[in-house]
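Input/output pair, single chain:
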Amino acid sequence: MSQKGYLIAEAKVHDAAAYEGYKPLSLAAVEQYGGRFIIRGGASEVLEGKWSPPQRMVIVEFDSVEQAKCFYHSPEYQAARKVRENAAEMNMLVISGIDNLL
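Output:
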């Protein structure tokens, strides 16, 4: 059995044109490190509690938390972060999923 790793990110985009330069670089890094997008933007709706609806939410599934961290610390993703630096504020975390029973 293995636990998946999920990278969850909330972006507040300040410069849409500059952020467009970040997206293909981050996509390439995600794919290189075996990630799969579960959510990439899209509309959200608060159903309960005091959430502030995110401007842009992203969830990426990796085979493990360790693999998600490899992606994050990779030279490829660090280059993408530099491109995004003044384009958006980003909150990001990694969380372990439940054991895969299959």
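The chain has one domain: 3-44+53-96. The radius of gyration is 14 Å.
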